[in-house]
UniProtKB/TrEMBL annotation:
The keyword Ribosomal protein does not apply. The keyword Oxidoreductase does not apply. Pfam families: Abhydrolase_1. Its EC number is 3.1.1.24. GO terms for molecular function: 3-oxoadipate enol-lactonase activity. This is 3-oxoadipate enol-lactonase. Residues 15-241 form the AB hydrolase-1 domain. One of its GO terms (biological process) is beta-ketoadipate pathway.
Length: 256
């Protein structure tokens, strides 16, 4: 799979891969690129398969395939080892990499994510909705999980931009990644992850709340630490950009 990506930052910097959520594209990481480059990192961000400018697969995706896309991208770029920062589906991809390709992973930052989310049936239903009702309807619902109501009132233009991001995602690409989440159970893998890991959860995240999601990761991954960010829903890196960037860069500077 040819993965659409952008590389920015000093060529000699340690590489940080940014992996995004379902219904997003690589621009969801705009707030973190400047701070990471200022901290000396080389930033690689990419579109998940079926999202943004990465092609829609002809079959339902698995987490192993999403992780494999990152490994292939690192091979293409000639990068042996990278830090991986992922949010939601991106965090799941990051955990898969930490478990199955530990030699390729430096530090991990797992944002607003989970080791087991919903049921296969609930994700099948979401995929069916995407196909039947269209992506604008999916965006109408997900925007209320991505951001708090107060933030949406204060940032109407950004709210529209992120709504458009999901609405513009191909329904089949979205459905393919619903299958990856529905088929995922990373719980048994967590104790096997050896990368130094920071878990960040949004206090107001209705999709992957700290309780039962971020706290499980932090308890089960050896040595992991949990930070809960106030006034942040699911796309906490956009709603609280300075705090997320500070936590991410501080962790990655400490482990490099
Ligand atoms: O964002 C993800 O990758 C999964 C969680 C989710 O579906 C949140 C949403 O878009 O409503």
């Amino acid at each position: 799979m040819k993965v659409n990506h952008v590389v920015e930052g000093p060529p000699e910097g340690e590489v940080v891969v940014l992996s995004g959520s379902i219904g997003s594209n690589l621009s969801m990481w705009d707030p973190q690129v400047g701070p990471l480059i200022s901290a000396g990192f080389r930033v690689v961000r990419y579109d998940q398969r079926g999202h943004g400018r990465t092609a829609v697969p002809d079959h339902p995706a698995t987490l192993a395939e999403l992780g494999g896309d990152v490994l292939e991208l690192l091979d293409t770029l000639g990068v042996e080892r990278a830090h991986v920062v992922g949010l939601s589906l991106g965090g799941m991809t990051a955990m898969w990499l930490g478990r199955h390709a530990p030699e390729r992973v430096g530090g991990l930052v797992l944002c607003c994510t989970s080791a087991r989310l919903g049921t296969p049936e609930s994700w099948r239903q979401r995929a069916d909705d995407a196909r039947a009702r269209g992506m604008a309807a999916i965006a109408d619902t997900s925007i209320g999980r991505w951001f708090t109501a107060d933030w949406l009132v204060a940032h109407p233009d950004l709210g529209r931009e992120y709504h458009h991001m999901t609405a513009a995602t191909p329904a089949e690409g979205y459905a393919a990644c619903c299958h990856a989440i529905g088929g995922m159970d990373l719980v048994p893998d967590l104790p096997e992850i050896t990368a130094p890991t920071l878990v960040i959860a949004g206090a107001d995240d209705p999709a992957t709340p700290p309780e039962g999601h971020g706290d499980v990761l932090a308890k089960s991954i050896p040595g992991a630490r949990l930070e809960i960010v106030e006034q942040a829903a699911h796309l906490g890196n956009v709603e609280r950009p300075e705090r997320f960037s500070e936590l991410i860069t501080t962790h990655l500077k400490a482990v490099r």
